[in-house]
Amino acid sequence: MISSREYGSYSWELLVTVDHQHEEVQKEFLLQVTGDLHIGGLMLKLVEQIKIPQDWSDYAFWWEQKKCWLLKTHWTLDKCGVQADAKLFFTTQHKMLRLRLPNMKTVRLKVSFSSVVFKAVSDICKILNIRRSEELSLLKQSEDALKKKKKKDKNSKEPVTEDILNLCDSPVSSGLSGGPGLYSKTMTPTYDPLSGTPASSTITWFSDSPLTEQNCNILAFSHPNCSPETLAEMYQPRTLADKAKLNAGWLDSSRSLMEQGILEDDQLLLRFKYYTFFDLNPKYDAVRINQIYEQARWAILLEEIDCTEEEMLIFAALQAYHVSKLSLSSETQDFTCESEVDEVEAALSNLEVTLEGGNTSNILEDITDIPKLADNLRLVRPRKLSLKTIKPYWFVFKDTSVSYFKNKESAQGEPIEKLNLKGCEVVPDVNVAAKKFGIKLLIPVADGMNEVYLRCENENQYARWMAACVLASKGKTMADSSYHPEVHKILSFLKMKNWTMSPQAVSDPESIDMNPECFVSLRYTKKYKSKQLAARILEAHQNVSQMPLVEAKLRFIQAWQSLPEFGLSYYIVRFKGSKKDDVLGVSYNRLIRIDIATGDPITTWRFSNMKQWNVNWEIRQVAIEFDQNVSIAFTCLSADCKIIHEYIGGYIFLSTRSKDQNETLDEELFHKLTGGQE
């Protein structure tokens, strides 16, 4: 036995604040502890002193000064570094969070504030029935957007009441382990590919899901657009610098919400961060497809991504079609037992499609024969001090290079010039109405980018050459299995653009219940009158009017993916040795240095040529080494360098995914590539 005097020399008092709802019970407790007491023992000691009979299993210690959770219950206070001056907060790990989804709907649900964000997003996606959670993350709204919202609320005469979908009864959000979710591949499809309606039988199978049939409709169907006045009040980036601000708020995937200053009932944005939508399947991805469609739609309406007038009208036509389809949804949706697909039959049908291999003769042909293109095209070279020079040449496309000759007869000799397209930027330069089919090539050279334009004669020629250029830029040849689907995709997009005036379709735009200003960005509502816009949207609508609902959404997503700026996230950086700021565009396969004043690309670096990258955390500098002794270093000015580091590692991680794998992710590899050592 030791005396009380000796005991006092080894022990000390620790102040712990308990987060509970019992007003009659005190919240602050002084505990007599020693350094060798482990965290689990401290919990037991505290609960015994509180004397409130309740479930404490979701509670853990939050160390306010250090901004960290004490989750390793076998660690001692000495090992954690906890001393008498520490202030510990005993609180729940799962708390309420408001999430603004891509479709601008807000959901309220319980989320783990102690798990790293990567795991928290995975749990959120299980609740919302979104597969491939690794493509999404949480984003803090930009300060400019918040300022505009506050100004709008201030000017509003009526108090703003937000329509919030409450999903707090979810088993996953209550801290329990979630079931397989609605998207399990062994179950019946959640999406009818023909009518585009969620299959109600699936809802009843998963009774533990918070997504009732009504809630599933809210997330899986697009809803009527907001008014032009509401659109005008929303934040719209005007410059590249404004677009860079949109990407500054991504949360660190390797740290918890609480560690990043997020409080209970705060609002965050749930967004697709990585633009590589893997294994998109209408049978299982009702909510996922709709949310991708909505993110694309709002990016176009708010001009977060640039598009031509012709493209804007196509997007508007697809949106208008959705609205007209939805207005009849009560008649077309049939949730009766008669329309439901037998679960076992559906699972077997999908298995048959999954196991069905490609044509073996085609595979053999891909291996043994590399196709080439040869045709008459016109070459356009911009001159700085004179007009463009446009000359016809005989072009030959083989492997990943384009060579051109004076004429077809001289093709056996040496070419005038050979252009290696590996690593180049390929930008469409098309106006279907004006019969202009151009391909803009920005080819990396030692001092920047060499700009070359190819002009094609017609749609078919353009589709073949454009697809070849796109694949060559990624280091692939026309023998690759993705060549023919790429040609088909380009042709289908051109077909949507190629509409003709139909007197019947546009004779009376007012007869159609459509507010055209809801479907285009503000730039076009200022340029055209309402009747003119309605007529032009209805013209474009003729080419898409027969599409099923799901196909129209997928076409919209494909058209979005075809835009030159698709998938680029912008950051303002200062390159080592440079005296001015530049913009860095981060995409799924490359980095682009862009002139901040003109918006012109200066240099492109492909991830496929990257040897290694690292971060100097002391000076917050990212350094990257590429093949051929090319190295770059930059500091990020518009955001923390950890965000760019995570983007690069995240895209490399996503490139390792395979359809042969099951849907479980190597979380350890993700954190190894994105976490960093701060």
UniProtKB/TrEMBL annotation:
InterPro entries: Band_41_domain, FERM_2, FERM_central, FERM_CS, Kindlin/fermitin, Kindlin_2_N, PH-like_dom_sf, PH_domain
Family, per entry: Belongs to the kindlin family.
Main location: other
Keyword Membrane listed: no
Name this protein carries in UniProt: FERM1 protein
The keyword Plastid is annotated on this UniProt entry: no
GO BP: cell-matrix adhesion; integrin-mediated signaling pathway
